[in-house]
Give the backbone structure.
Amino acid sequence: MNADDPVIPVDPQDPAPRRRRNQQDGARGGKPFKFGQKGDVREVAVNVPPDEPPPWQFGDTHAVVGQRTPRVDAVAKVTGKARYAYDMNLPGMVWAAFVRCPHARAKVTAVDYAEALKIPGVLVAKDYGSKEIRYALQHFGIVAAETHAACLEAVRAVKATFEVLPHAARMDQALAPDAPRVHAERPNKTGDDFRPEAVAAFEKAAQGCDAVVSGIATTEVQTHMCLEPHGVTARFEAPDRATVWASTQATFGARGEVARVLKVPEANVTVIAHYMGGGFGSKFSLGVAGAAACTLSKELGRPVKLMLERRAEHAQGGNRPSSVQEMSLGVKKDGTLAAYKVSKTGTGGIGGGAGAANPMIYDFGEVAEADFEVATNAGAAAAMRAPRHPQGSFALETIMNLAAEAIGMDPLELRRKNDKHPIRARQYVEGAKRFGWDKRTPSGSGKGPIKKGMGVASSLWYALGGRGAQVLCRIRKDGSVEIRNGAQDIGVGTKTILAMVAAEELGIPLSRVTPFLGDTNDPIGPASGGSTTAPTIMPAARTAAFMAGRSLREIVAKAWNCGADDLALGGGKVLHLKDGSKSMTFEKACALMPGDEIAELGKRTGNYAAYEGQTGGVHFAEVEVDTEDGTISVTRYLALQDAGTILNPLTAESQVNGAIVQGVSYALFEERILDRQLGQQVNADMEMYKIAGPKDMPRAEVILTEVVNGANNVGVAGLGEGPSVPVAAAIAGAVHNALGFPVWSLPMTPDRVLAAIAAKEKGK
Amino acid sequence: MKDFTYVLPKDAAEAARAAAAPNCALKGAGTDLVDRMKEGVTRPDTVVNLLTATDLRSPIREENGRIVMGGATTLAEVAESALIRKVAPGFADAAAEAATPQIRNRGTVAGNLCQRPRCWYFRNDTYACSKKGGETCYSIEGENKYHAIFENVTCNIVHPSNLAPILQVLGGTLHVVTANGTDVVASDVAVKDFWVRPEEDISRENILVAGQVVREVSFPIPQGMTGSSYVETREKASFDWALTSCAAALTLDGGKIASASVVLSSVAPTPLQLEAVEKWLVGKAPSDALFREAGTKATDGATPMRDNAYKITLTAVVVRRALSAAAARATGGGK
Amino acid sequence: MGGHAEEGKGSVSRRGFLKSAGVAAAATSLIDDAKKAMEPVGPAPAAAVRGETEIRFKLNGKETVAKVPPSMTLLELLRERLDMTGTKQVCDRGACGACTVHLDGRTVNSCLLLAMDATGRDVTTVEGLAVGDRLHPVQQGFVEEDAMQCGFCTPGMVMSCAALLAKNPAPTRAECAEGISGNICRCGTYLNIFRAMDRASALAKGGK
């Protein structure tokens, strides 16, 4: 991973240091460019670095960019031809699998591999990993066999004995007074308590408020449940080379890890991820499976495939931490938010990384925050689309709704009043109109057992990409174009926009350009994290295409005896800007090449002073709550989302749709349930771990807000995180509106909804 | 999955003889059995493939006032059967709501009735639970959100079959063949007598023993102003297991309930016939208020555990909804 | 879920429910009825098989011979012996639909189908849907409406949609949702799949 591009903002509340590092140090003497959005266009001075094309600015039109374009690998995906790491069948390949402990905390005291080794086809059955078990399904052994079936039978045949120790798999267990320590060196609960002066300031400000509302929001652990599990097919090539087909979101990070594991030069390692079956933040490293497969491949001298089995994918594949967020919010009658106090506690298992991004977005006045992490004997958390944010957003927007009710203000108005972001300011107005917010009825006013409601929640993200990518553009004598980067397309359509940017810059049809991603023999690219892939790669791609096109223009200029700057590329032609009678097709121009090809390497430079450093979004949800059986149906959804320059509206909308679908799932269904006895996840499958299906879907609309952010020569922003932030919150707001009171716990399953209704009736 | 001897019988009689083998499993579609074999919860030496037994594939048909079908009739065939839709729509609904399209295309009627419970402790081979011959029912102290709220004493599974409650209210019969050495005898068993409570034998959920095969399933065609229904609650609208489910059949006469059959499922180790509620309903005029009260009565005697008290509310809801739907079908001239 | 499986425990029922009757008499009337509607199912009846056994079936229109042990699923056969990896292994328990193939035109979970049970049957996988370079209308609809992200659920989704379209040339959104309710997508492409099905339906009509 490049240091400039941390996967998760180090501190999402204050991304400024990173922005400063990436940004130009002022742009004295720079040329003015128009950046912004409809109704708010600003002139910003930019020193365009040498070799870079000038940034796209407000009012520019494009030929390829902005067109709804089916992804370039769509046919491979719908015909089954796309080959993933899991699909590699190499000659002589061996299957491997881990042997695991069913207890959450234990010592492996004895292991007998004899029966496993007797199974025909079994090559290896031995210890691998620590014998100190700290979470259920942690591995301590490994087997390898000629077939997948033999491998799984061998795992079953291993006889192990354990000294079972008291565990704290669940957060309630870890917080009990006599809880065993998860990490010997520190208490289970660690973190930062309130600063007394912040609490004092909060209390003073709260006294000046007309209402102080409070509540405790809880969210459960959600697992990533990538359809393609974590794992690789690894081939060690003696004496010192390796090729690894990895299900990864960080080909270059994985390459370094492979080199370290195998003790071979990084240059001798190729990591391939032409296709990968879902990561969502959980596949940044080679992982335990990848390291084991590489090691075994070296030992056996044969290719090894090791993919986590489904149950282990829940335990070892990462998860979004849980949260308990206790909040008090002071508000004045005019909607001014003046005082906010929040204490957050959550668990990321043995790995840490819990916490909730709360507060954010709104100006709360005096803020007092406490943030605690509880270590538990459970699988480690990993980044998951907008880490810390969906849980923070759910709590924050819920308390906002309560505050609005307390002062009798429309919840959308309260948000508008306290949110000065220029993009969201526009989205509140446009969204309300589009969604029919004026038809929202007062909370809890519905009659009959099925109650309707509407909710709204806001989104932000911080990343506009940065240094850390190089892209190779190659124009061949036959007029074909290659555009190459070694990073991965994790399914969001990166490969397609890569080709689109090159085609746009070279003024040729998309069909002429072949994009390559997912092979570390191509130039370096970022890990796909924090919504940085597109904004990091695309400016370098545009630069590479610009440079290659410039070389082509120079060749033609020589033939026409003019300057290269007198020529432009467009409409599949080389055009003379001053002499309209002169033009040449792109192919003919290429044929003039003295050599076989032009190849240029475009480099990603730092960001310019952008129109806005953060992207914005506003989401609206409508629900029907069946107050008899406790089910919630999300009936309508509208997402207004900014992602800077929209390179491909088709795939951009898909990514927002995906965030909505995942958000519905998080809001209504998903919950890792850990058994308090052995500490295992009892629903570690795909039916009792409930993921939203097609019948749980709302009618949804996505509006991509057009913003020319000018952060770089392309101005695209990622969509991995932003649209994932507010979905559960918007749905929860709609449920609140339907019922007249909030359901404070996610997922809002029937048991929780019915309990909330019963508690409310009891309180009457 | 452990390797096994695969027996391919020509008919139910051959299947029954083969099924007398030690550590033998019967397989219809295999959608449940193969799942358990992969989990290592079931490791048979012999598997008898009932799909090659032609008499288990006898078509859905009307015969002497009954609807009869082979045990290996698929759920999709039931759901799509115009005959069943006409005479017992509740049965078609139950089949159509089961599992997924893929499973319904394979899964069989007899298999649906005989499938093993979904309890997450039972289905995990690392838990030596009492149903698997161990000492403890882990759901008592453990995670019991989806477990039984009735008859939850020894083992707290809930019966997972969609078809069980509806077949029971329809007065269904299982036509079983039994191998006794080389002799094979046929016998009938009422669906209501098919179930085994954990207190009787914790290792199984029905009375079938080694050497027995369900060859066909049948039920009498409902007469008069009778309506039947199957209703369930669940978390997801897409494929999910029922939290509570209820099948009901009501016969109306002169605006009054002449007879009622109500069976709850997904709330106890076996389908539960609500005899007290049925008696209470007879002679009364159907109404929403009546069915609401019936729903409340249906929850009498519930013994919820730490995490599943919400199922009491959902029991009342399914009973009321099932009775309302059955009454609507009865008065609508439908079935 | 409908599995027909009950292990005999060797114990004797405590309830004396059996009303014995001669099985021959009972069976005769049934067999005639049965013959009418019965198609051959599964391998030709034989006493028993164990170990690697030859099976024959039609795979994407081609007669195929393979040797499999009884414990091998069709999914394993496809992916691990025939190198047909379009069909995906995800939950491996019939809950996610990624392994969906057509068995005589109907969708099934190949992860739960013993390969031997495909004997004599017609199996279509995602690799067999397009005719040469001409995509199936469902595939074309998926491409145009971007009904995929990571693509790992896509083959199964395509197979469920193709089976639905064959049965119902113009499914409503609700029918489409029901048709793919045995398939899980983690990236969240359901909304695009609904649009893709509308597109496929239009393409199929136009194409005929």
